[in-house]
Amino acid sequence: MSVKNCLKPVLEEKLKVKKLTGYRFGKLTGLSRETSERINDPNWVPSAQILDVICKTFKVQPGEFLYWVPDGENE
Questions:
Q1: Is there a domain that residue 22 lies in?
Q2: Is the pTM of this model over 0.90?
């Protein structure tokens, strides 16, 4: 089993942008460049502190962009 994220598409829809870059995400959240670039990785599960920043900045719930995939199943 693993937890995955679909943060980038969720935020692109919410912000009504075609492509959300790590740079723009970083500018909006104030997170580091290294952290911001991770929005492109669906296997990245943000820490509680980073989740808090994301949720406050974009007014979203973690359940809107985190999901669980059971072992042996495709996304």
A1: yes
A2: no
Cite the DSSP H helix spans in the chain: 7-15, 22-29, 33-36, 48-58
Q: Could you list the residue range(s) of the whole structural domain that residue 34 is in?
A: 2-69
Tokens encoding 4? 């995955």
Domain count for the chain, please give it.
1
Residue 34 resides in a domain: yes
Backbone angles phi, psi at 42, to 5 degrees: -65, -15
Q: How far apart are CA 48 and CA 18, in angstroms?
A: 27
43-66 pLDDT, tens digit per residue, is 999 999 999 999 999 999 999 999
Cα dihedral 1/38/35/24 (nearest 10) = -140
